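Hey team,

Sharing the Diadenosine tetraphosphate hydrolase run so nobody has to redo it. Sequence (142 residues) first:
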Amino acid sequence: MTDPFRLHPQLAADTDLVTEGPLSRILMMNDARYPWLILVPRRNDLVDYDDLTADEREMLGRECAETSKILKRLFESNKTNVAMLGNMVPQLHCHVVARFPGDPAWPGPVWGIGQSLPFREDDAKDRIEALRAELITAFRTV
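Structure output:
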């Protein structure tokens, strides 16, 4: 019997669940300044990208690409940033952030810039519902 998936406490504190992809739990960062999703492969004890199998790396790549396309379309963003850092939270996770000229961190990275702006509860629910619907549809074909 395998251990149930464990999400790092910092990720759990900073995010809300959107949906489950084929490989990853998809979370929304609680920062209203950016459309920002985090994909966490549902495998325990992963730290780095190379801890995934070749098939899992391919699946994570597909999930990130679909997530990026959805963020661009829903939020009409100019670009998405896709990154796996893991310096603060060691559990393997991938950030997908929609970016816009003039956003609070543009053109630099979003990390460490200003104060996070938590969503109002209704706004978070609306965004999660819209993202969930799009992601579920997209992942039917992945």
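The chain has one domain: 9-105+114-137.

Ping me if you want the raw files.
A.
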